[in-house]
Amino acid sequence: MRFGKQIREHVERAARAKAMGGPEKLARRKAAGALDVRERIDRLLDPGSFRESGLFGVSYIPEMRDATPCDGKVTGFGKVEGRRVGVVGYDFTVKGSSSSYTN
Fold this sequence. Notes:
alpha+beta
């Protein structure tokens, strides 16, 4: 495959970003009865309508860019009752969503 390496890197990076702050932090939130950011967005929007933007955003703090899997915010577009909307969700599992570069 001509771009096999780049495609694999893209898929791996997307998987790390979608894993948010990692299984331990997600489990703690779940045990506390809290939804993670992607679950909150899924409940807000019409099923299947979310189109994420900024998946590969990184921390605003240069020293943290390699230490975090993604940005502390999940952004994108979707529909609520058929109407197009923009959405920002705060991912508290990634630095409490405080190091965000995607705004």
